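Collaborator request, handled under Task 6.
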Amino acid sequence: MVRRTVLACLLLATLSVLVPAQAMTPESWKLEWEIDLADGYITTHPVIDNDTVYVRTSGFWTGEERPQVFAFSTEGEERWNRTSATTVQHDMSPLFLIPSGVGPCGSWPDLMAVGWADGTVEVLRANDGTSLWNRTSATQGWGITGAIAQDGDHLVVPTRTGMMRVCISNGELDFEVELGLGWRNGILTTDDAFWQGDESGNIWKVSRDGTSTLVADLGGSIRHAPIQTSSGIFVHVQRGATSTIHLLNATNNSVVTIHQGGASPAMPVSNERYVVAGDSSSLSIFDCERNCTLVSEHPTTTNGELVWASAQAVWYPVNQPNGKWAVTTLTENGTIASTVNFSTPHDGYGTAAPSFGENRMVMGNDAGVLMMYVQQRSVTTDPQPYDWVPFGGAIVLISLLSIGAYASSINRHQWGWRLVMLVLLVSTLAITPDLSSRWSQSLIENSQTDTSEIWNETWPESWRETQVVIIEIDGEQQVIGGLDGYETALDLTLAAADEASWEVNVESTELGSYVVSINGEEGSGWEYFLNGERAGQSSDRQSVSDSIVLHWRLVRR
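Structure tokens returned to the collaborator:
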């Protein structure tokens, strides 16, 4: 009986070791630079394209301030800016980057399309900000404020009084149609038509020849581009102190109301299956794979732009006097897993979503401050793919344990315990490298953050906060510092050896690469330390930080 109990415990232990838990790794961002653009609100998201950041301001609507469009390098250096001398207020049309291309109406380089509140749509060369062409449209109080869309080699522009379609390469007008008055009402492009809402709650359908059809009258105001889902067209309608969300069937033009929300809706966003909407009272998640049902809600205040940062994480500004940005992460079934705030040195009112590039995030607020953040480590908010190899190994070991238990139950104790010992041996071999790696990584995280305790005041000050390598033989040390950018202890060692003309002999084994000799000195072997702490694995597998003292010591016995 005791032996069977022991076998059962070993079975559970094997499962706990070999079937790992899945975890979410938090993102870590560091502010790299900020620029105060001074002359007005940043009300729409900046745009990151390779090594360039584009952003627009709206002006403070008084005095001599005028809206501008800027291009900065990702290091914060201004490359160009363009000011509109004829528009003063409500410049809120998101910037629209157009990659180079060619079509029946012509070819074009990389461009930036700008909709101005004086009714002008202007296309700028992305590299220097010079104007390629511009075209005016009707104004009534203001002009273009909604999001521009691309349709092949054409742009579809939401004007104050309707919609127009123009050739990208030269601005030639394809059609212009009058619909209802609009405000921040962008364009949805589908295979057969263009869809747009207006300030009276009307939904319009415009065919490719410019023929317009009033599809539905929802009342209120539609202040975003309709969203196409597999369940229908998603529309959030503002109604004074409340709002309603509707689903339009594009085949028969029927409309279903699916939710009632708070005032001042945000601009909803979709990742194909889920649509996220916001307003002054909450953030709402809808599963639109079939019928756009409400999955979950989170109380907050967000009235501007939302953005998917990954398949399951949405960022948005919290539009309050002390507002921050917030990150809501979803589970695989669309429920809210967590919501955390992201604070900056300039928290306050905001309506612009952040934008993401490779390991970079740029955001701007209503005070006109543009901020660039850099991701400090390679992480993701998406669930990591499950590694089935440990699970398969667990099944094999469980099978062996089961056979051992059975052998023990029929009094074949010798065979049973042989299988148990085999399982213990295999399990130990399987987890030893991982335990070594985890222990060593813990060492790095706990000890590599500060080199001050082992800093030698005789070293050049320029070496501080860099990578330093010490070679010690019989108490005498040779030191190379000022190194940078090396990721493993072995790479750093070889770089220092190259600079100091040391000869390093490395031997590769199944457990990693080991330093056998330096300048012909072998002794009983070489050991190394990271900021004074003994390392726990081979140097080729040992990661090092940007500020580290790597100390090699010859062992003689």
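The cover message to the collaborator said: "Confidence is low (pLDDT under 50) at residues 1-26, 378-386, 434-449. The two ends are 50 Å apart (CA to CA). Please let us know whether this matches your experimental observations."
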